[in-house]
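Our platform keeps sequence and structure together, in a single record for each protein. Nothing more is needed to write down the fold, since each code stands for a local backbone conformation. An entry from our holdings is shown next, in its original layout:
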Amino acid sequence: MTTTTPAQETAAAGLVRPTVLAVVGAAVAAAVVHLLFDAAGADFVVAPGGQEPTTVALGMAAGVAAVVTALGGTLAALLARTTRRPSRAFLVAAAVVVALMAVNPVLAADQALTVVALEVEHLAVAAVALALLLPPLRARDRA
């Protein structure tokens, strides 16, 4: 069984505000990108894994961005409690998730502009989440 020190518990608790801000920021970023590419003519129609085509709506994009970012904040808090260098571990996890998410639009969307739009959405959400969650993790890195 792993025990945590009071400093580790404080580190995890100190991520609540950045996580909430990241969730809101990620949802807003996804919505803004979605609106910009919608205005540019992206149809946002995807057919993942040969399923029936569906349109990624604005609310769906913002909602998924918020949920994924909340999961990222939860992972950040867990890493702050259990690892000596939570920022490094979080960066590795984020890089893997972003790399995996980069594949989906290429495979699921037929329209090139939709592929670009979804890729930019993913990158915008990741940028917001990393910008808000990494600094408190870096402050908690223990050498």
About this structure: The first strand starts at residue 45 and ends at 46. Residues 6-140 form one domain. The radius of gyration is 17 Å.
